[in-house]
Design brief:
This protein is of the alpha+beta class. The protein is built from 5 helices and 8 strands; from the N terminus they run αβαβββαββαβαβ. It has one domain: Superoxide dismutase, copper/zinc binding domain (Immunoglobulin-like), CATH 2.60.40.200. The chain has an 8-stranded antiparallel beta sheet. Strand 2 and strand 3 form a beta hairpin.
Length: 205
């Protein structure tokens, strides 16, 4: 019996090693640069091997020394999400706020902090930019667990990464913004304002 269990375990480990690797990448381009005073940019990489999903985000040009929310956004009906163009600024205040991204990008879906599977958007474990305005984020999660959490939240077990976009948010809390800049609920607009976005694309295989 013990020998059979060990054999099964070894077979499972081998299967995990031999599983194909699928890679998705989003190249992050700056948004609202006139507000941040810099050009936030970077890369988000999603690597799937067996039941392991590794999320890696490298960003630079960010407002330094503060925490930055980061997520993928998309549509619940799995339409293709895109990053906003200047036309998204429908109120003409010169700033594309979080609410204005909705028609092109959909809603906030999966957070990238210490526990993406929690699907908890409000969280204080998002990455904090260094004094140089950069950070490196890396987290490996169970793909099946994330799919189950996603299905519970959006009634859909498919993540459909290549239909989503990645956002980085956040400027200095002291930044003065027009009253027309909207946010979610009581969350200050300075926390949710998007500063970088990138479309996720499958690159391998």
């Amino acid at each position: 019996m013990l020998g059979a269990c060990l054999s099964m375990g070894m077979a499972g480990a081998a299967l995990g090693r031999d599983a194909p690797t699928t890679v998705y990448v989003a190249h992050l381009a700056p948004l609202n640069s006139k507000v941040t005073g810099s050009n936030a940019s970077g890369e988000a990489r999603f690597t799937i091997k067996g039941d392991r999903l590794t999320i890696r985000i490298d960003a630079k040009g960010l407002p330094p020394g503060i925490m930055h929310l980061q997520h993928f956004h998309g549509f619940k009906d799995n339409r293709e999400a895109t990053c906003p163009t200047p036309a998204a600024d429908v109120n003409g205040d010169g700033i594309i706020d979080l609410i204005e991204t909705g028609p092109m990008s959909g809603t906030t879906m999966v957070p990238f902090h210490n526990d993406p599977v929690s699907m908890q958007i409000v969280n204080d474990t998002y990455p904090k930019a260094s004094a140089a305005g950069s950070y490196h984020y890396k987290k490996t999660v169970s793909l099946s667990a994330l799919k189950a959490a996603f299905a519970k939240a959006f009634d859909d077990p498919q993540l459909d990464l290549d239909k989503r976009v990645v956002y980085i948010h956040g400027i200095f809390p002291s930044t003065s913004l027009p009253a027309s800049v909207a946010s979610l609920g009581k969350i200050p607009a300075q926390v949710t304002i998007p500063i970088a976005c990138g479309k996720i694309e499958r690159v391998a295989p």
